[in-house]
Amino acid sequence: MVVIIFLGPPGSGKGTQAKLLVERYGFRYIATGDIFRWHMNNNTELGKMIREYLEKGELVPDNITIRVVEQEIDRVRGGNLILDGFPRTLEQAQKLDEILDKIGKKVDLVIYLRVSKDEAVKRLLARGRHDDQPQTIARRFDEYKIKTRPIIEYYKSKKLLVEVNGEQTIEDVHKDIVHILKNMGFLD
Ligand code: AMP
After folding, report:
1. pTM of this structure
2. What is the mean pLDDT of the chain?
3. Which ligand 1 atom lies nearest to the CA of residue 69?
4. pLDDT value at position 12?
5. Cβ of residue 113 lying under 6 Å from some atom of ligand 1
6. Ligand 1: which atom is nearest the Cα of residue 50?
7. Residue 133: helix, strand or coil by DSSP?
8. Superfamily grouping for domain 3-176
9. What average pLDDT does range 162-167 have in this prediction?
């Protein structure tokens, strides 16, 4: 089992790229944003707890997020795994190491999708998801800058980070990622 993390600012294409690997190479997939939106739309207890954060563009508290991911990792055990949108804080990154360690796994690779803020905002406004309003977008970028960016250094120091130019076409970004995964022996 290989564990790959997709990291990058809102609008960098994490979900798009992760889903292509799922479709074409059968990776398993955990996207915390998708899980949170499902709970919100189905008005579950968890959905009620997290709605406010998603609507404001703030990060859901670490304890809630980590609990959700721990359950999901347990569920998808086996097979290659992509994490999209998690971890987003240093505490989440450290907890992830502990969770994986308990089942004899580790983070194998972190793919950092680099895009400029201008390009990312343009994409988000074009996508038009419920939380893609100018004010919410601004908040999500602030959260990214303050809480998520430090984990780039965390993974860099562990020599796990690989940077990909996220400003290319979807297919070209995908090609770069597949190339990296093949070079590292994670794909045949
Ligand atoms: P995403 O679909 O990844 O853009 O996430 C949408 C929203 O879900 C974010 O703006 C946060 O409110 C919440 N969220 C997703 N992943 C996390 C995470 N790892 N930690 C905290 N909040 C998260």
Report:
1. 0.97
2. 96
3. 19
4. 98
5. no
6. 12
7. coil
8. P-loop containing nucleotide triphosphate hydrolases (3.40.50.300)
9. 98
